[in-house]
Amino acid sequence: MAKLNKDFLWGGALAANQFEGGYDQGGKGLSVHDVMTAGEHGKAREITETIEADKFYPNHEGIDFYNRYKEDIGLFNEMGLKCLRTSIAWTRIFPNGDETEPNEEGLKFYDDIIDELLKYNIEPVLTLSHFEMPLHLAREYGGFRNRKVVDFFVHFAETVFNRYKDKVKYWMTFNEINNQMDTSNPLFLWTNSGVTLSEDEDAEEVLYQVAHNELIASALAVTKGKAINPNFVIGNMISHVPIYPYSCNPKDILEAEIASRLRYFFPDVQVRGYYPGYALKMFEKKGYDIKWQEGDDEILKNGTVDYIGFSYYMSTVVKHDAQQSVEDNIVNGGLSNSVANPYIKVSQWGWAIDPVGLRYTLNALYNRYQLPLFIVENGFGTTDEFKEDGTIDDQERIDYLREHINASIEAVDEDGVELMGYTPWGVIDIVSFTTGEMKKRYGLIHVDRDNEGKGTLKRTKKNSFYWYKNVIDTNGEELK
C-alpha cells in the first residue's frame, strides 16, 4: 500500500516579496519590505523611512521572476511539481491599500502566472498576506493596530477571491501569523503587520491588539471566500518551532508547556473560533485592554479554517532557570531561557537540524486540532559551490530534505496524521527574509545573484533538483 495519497501535493514554496522583483513595475505600490535594506549573517536589516539612493534594497529586484516567470514555471514543471505555494503581492492589487478600485495590471499579472501554472497542471496555493502590507497602510494608519486596516484587507481578499474563483482552490490568509509573538525583534511586527512601537508602549499589549485585528481579518476573509466559492479550501499558516523541556524536571516541563502558548495562540483561535482560557486569564491579570467590537465573537466562530499550513525548520529547548539575553541565542524564538540541545546538529546559520521534531510537530498539531495539515515551508539554508564541471552538489540539502520527508511519511504511515502536501521553502534561490542575503540559499535551482545584487540571474539546476524530481515521481517511495 502506498504511504501517501496519489493526490499528495508535492510542490515548492516562495513569497512574492522575495522572488518577484519588479517593485516599480505594473503599477505596484511600495510594501513594507520595499524599504528594508540588505543585512548579513548576524546583522539586522534596516527599515528606512523612504527609499534612499545610497542603500541597497535586495527585494526590489528579487530574482526577477516578474519578467522571467515562464522560464521559472517551466523549470518547476520539469521538476514535476504538483503545486506551487506562493503569495499575491497586496501592493500589486491595491498599491496604497486603501483604494476602492484595484489595479487591473496587477490582477492581470497573477492571471498570467496562474494560467501558466495550470497549463502544466501545477496547482496554485496562494497566500493573501506574506509580509506584503502596503507601506501606505503602515505609515498612515499604523498597520494592523488600526481596525480600519481590517476592512482594507478584507476588500483585497474579496477582490482576488472573485478574480480567481474558478482557477484557485487552495488559499491561506496570513503567512506565519504567529512569528510576531517574538516582540524582541521589531522586524516581525513590521513585516507581519506594518507596526512600529514607541518606547512608552507595552509591546505585548500592542501585539495582542494587532493579533485580534488580524484574527478578525482572517475570519472575515474565510467567510467571504466561502460565500464566493464554497469549494475554496482556506487555511491559516503558522510558524511552528516545537519547544522541548530541557529535562524531566517538572519545572522544565511546565516551562515548555507555558512557552508553547506562543506557538499555539493564533491557531487555537483560527481553528476553534474563540480565545483560549490562558490568553483571557493573561489579559485579566495584566490589565490589557483589547478592543473588541460588537459581533467579533460571531466573526471568529464563523470564520474558522479548513486546514493548518505551517513552516517547520527547527526546534528549541527551554530550561526553567536559564537566563540570557535574546541576542546571545540567534535561534531561540525570542525566549530568554532557551538553551542548546546537545543531541542535534546545527546548520551553517545556527539553525537546529531536527527531523524527528517535524514528526513530533505533525503529531502535536494533528492531535490538538484534528484538521488536515500542510507542510508549506521546510528547507535548508546554506551556501552553494559550483564544481569544475559546472554542477552544484548540494548533498547536505538533499540529506536534510530526505530526513524531513521521511519523518513526515512516518507521521502519516505510523501515526495516522492527515497530511495534504509538502512544499520545501525556496524551491528556487530567493532573497532571505531575515537577512536580505542571497548567500543563504534554500533553492533546488541556483540563481546567479550575490549579496550585492550582482550577477547574471542565470538559473542552474542543482543536484537536489533531480533528487526531488525522483521523489515526486515515486510519490515519496524513493528517497535515496
TrEMBL record:
GO terms for molecular function: 6-phospho-beta-glucosidase activity. It holds the Pfam family Glyco_hydro_1. Keywords: Glycosidase, Hydrolase. InterPro entries: GH, GH_1_N_CS, Glyco_hydro_1, Glyco_hydro_1_AS. Its EC number is 3.2.1.86. It is an enzyme of class 3 (hydrolase). SUPFAM superfamilies: (Trans)glycosidases (SSF51445). The keyword Methyltransferase does not apply. The keyword Hydrolase applies. The active site is at E377 (nucleophile). Coiled coil: none annotated. Belongs to the glycosyl hydrolase 1 family. This is 6-phospho-beta-glucosidase. It comes from Mammaliicoccus vitulinus.
